[in-house]
Structures are given as structure tokens and as C-alpha cells.
Amino acid sequence: MSTLAVIQELIAKSAEVPVESLDPNRPLEELQVDSLTVLEAMMDIEDKFKIKMPEERVPIRTLQDIVELVDRLVAQQSGVPK
Question: Domain coordinates of the chain in residue numbers?
Fold first, then answer.
């Protein structure tokens, strides 16, 4: 399963919206995904991907932003060069 598919499932569960409605390139606000939902999902994402989110605030506007962040963190934290 791709990073996008996993994240879509986690966000859909947290936001209580259909997975099919989660276009990765639309702003999260348009998808009815608020900041609290993103925060909750980020904790699930950390557990699922065995990563630690950065302490500093990272701008996230779309699901694709989350996917790119997760892929980058997985590569960094596993020691695999990007």
C-alpha cells in the first residue's frame, strides 16, 4: 500500500469522511479536514510509519504535503539517502 493510500485511510478515519473524497492536491480545509484532525492523524501516522514528526512547525496544506513529509522522514530516520 502506498504512503498516500495509508494516509488517506488514516485521515478519512479521523475526519469521518469517505476516502474517495480525499484528493491529495486539494487544500485540507476544502476536504473538511481541520487542524485538530490533522494533529490526531499525525500521531497515528507516527505510529504506523515508525517515525517522529519534527518539533518545528511544518507547513501542511494538502494530503500531498503530508505524503512528502512522511516519505522524507521515513528516508531520513531509516538512514536511507533520498
Answer: 3-78
